[in-house]
Sequence to fold (466 residues):
Amino acid sequence: MARFSEQMIRGLLSSPLQRSFESAGAAIGAAPGMLATRRREGEFLNTMMEASSEGITSAQAGNVEDLQKQISNLRTLARGSNVTLDQTRALFKQIKELQALIPNATATGITNKAKALIQAEETLKDPTLDPTKRQALEQRIEEMKQDPDVVEQYNTYRINRWRTKRAQQEMESEAWVQANNSAIVKAIQESDLDKLDALGTEAAQQNSYNAFQKFVTTTTQNVKTRDYLEQRSTEKTNKPNLNYDEAIKNLPTEEMRKTVRARYDAYKQVVDQGWNEETGTWNEPLRTRAKALEKELKDSLYRMQDAVAIADFRETNAARVAQEETIQKLELELEAPVDELNVARIARATAKDPDDITSEEYAAAREEERRRIRRSTIKQIRIIDPEYAKEKYPDRKITEDISMYSEDEQRIIKDAAQQWPDKSIEEIISALIAKKYIQSPSAEMSYIERVRAKISPMGTYSNTKG
Fold:
């Protein structure tokens, strides 16, 4: 329980409320009941301030339940038979101040629970964790994930952590391609496919193989352009090289084109002054100047081309990361609590008595909503990245004969088979029957009755398994 220092108590006792007590005491003088009255007043003040202090401490810790408890204690104190008007005013002032803390306390509580959820999942990764503790922790995680606000914050943390990790990987992969730029160019010039394959393997290890392929494609075009220009350079032919227009035109931005064209114009100006087309000869000093300017021109063009190749690499990786993030968010939806409004709608549509829906019927509706979300989410993932979806969510083929079940029951069996690929069809059907999600073919219960009785099919199986 929070305690107050003598200085704090002295400050509280100097409040308007306490000063009114002192004035009354001065008027009464040394009447026999004075000490008892002041003792009651002091006890009241201590009780009020202790409740307020504990309420503040609870709010800072995000414990809304305890905060509400202290507010309730203050209200109870205000209903006392011997409470004066000044005391009542002081109490309601404290209540109002504590109530103002509820929104921030709620947000803090959600944050704390989300962090606890992440920590619990990290703890579960420990293979040496005691089985009993593991089971208790799994139950605790399941309970925390029933709070939509906590799950939303938890998902935000997971996405942010994922983004940070990906950003680090992208920086490392870009540093790798810049460090290996010369080796890639050399492999392209020498048509060394083995070397390119080896470099591609390194890029794949950094999850950047598609970006590497784009980089190689851009760099290959750059190498062809450079070979063409080098063969026609003034240094090699002793003639002006006026073949840069196409290369400059192919640069992707106006700023790049403007920068390189300025050097090209400077080179052409010297060519106009120093080259005699009729005689095929140079003014020697201007020839030397033209060679230097062409070197500057090529250096500028090649730097721009290298920057374009790196930008292509970066943009390809960025597109991949954006796609992965979209999938990451979709997969987090599979773990989120279902919308209870949708559950209620399904329950009313399938319940035997819509005005008296049983807990089993609500459970069945909740499971149906989870199944709908899963189907919809996986469908979206398959559109975004078919290869990933094929590997993560394989379309399991059922070879067993399930024709004795109704069409709706067959759909339920097939959906369950996709959700739990590690279970045999026999195990899945047994679990579905045991949980009354489907009925044994020999039973007489109608299908609509079975729907109304259905509950979660797989019991203790993980409902987050891909």
Notes: Confidence is low (pLDDT under 50) at residues 1-6, 8-15, 24-29, 444-466. The chain has 21 helices and two strands. Residues 107-162 form one domain. The radius of gyration is 38 Å.
